[in-house]
Design brief:
alpha+beta; two-stranded antiparallel sheet; single chain; Alpha-Beta Plaits
């Protein structure tokens, strides 16, 4: 078959399939954009759009948190007000043994997860702000992490390195002696 015939059939096939795909695509429901998380949510929080729709704003998670790390959003919007959040720099999630917040949630906005499955966010280190970049042997973020070197460590070159085991609890951000903190939890989507 010559190239011109092959090209002709490809064009016919592309037009036919392209039109069929357009027709089918028009009949499918529009995808709901996922609203990005703007706050650090308690452990086990489902995706943000569903979280906002599912959370009863009952305060059970706030009441049972042994670290008193969970607070209610106030004065923002009807959609956000009353929902639980954690301000890690003020008081992080200690990822307590009982994970009481998840167990106290009646709505399902906080799913029951094992400690190793929790992903609230990920710590990010500002290397320029870190005391180690200024010749100090600071190890506070590494030493205080409840997940040890599975989450954060000092690499062979002396730089703080965040690993896949980080759950975003915020203890490193809370304990960082630099102001503002050289370690900040970036919120999970």
């Amino acid at each position: 078959m010559s190239d011109s015939r092959r090209d002709f059939f490809r064009q016919v096939l592309d037009r036919t399939l392209g039109q069929a795909a357009d027709i089918i695509g028009d009949q499918l429901p529009a995808a709901v954009p996922q609203e990005p998380r703007t706050r650090l949510r308690p452990p086990g929080a489902i995706v943000e759009a569903q979280f906002l729709d599912t959370c009863y704003r009952c305060g059970n998670c706030v009441d049972v948190c042994p670290a008193q790390a969970i607070h209610h959003v106030k004065g923002v919007s009807d959609e956000q007000n009353g929902t639980p959040f954690i301000a890690a720099r003020d008081q992080p999630c200690l990822v307590c043994v009982g994970l009481e917040c998840m167990q106290a949630c009646p709505s399902g906005a906080l799913q029951l997860l094992g400690r190793e499955q929790i992903r609230m966010g990920t710590a990010v280190v500002d290397g320029a702000a870190c005391l180690r970049a200024h010749g100090q042997d600071c190890r506070v973020c590494v030493d205080m992490c409840p997940y040890d070197e599975a989450a954060i460590r000092i690499d062979d070159s002396g730089i703080v390195q965040v690993l896949d085991g980080c759950v975003g609890c915020g203890i490193c951000e809370w304990k960082c002696p630099v102001e503002p903190s050289a370690v900040v939890v970036h919120i999970a989507g």
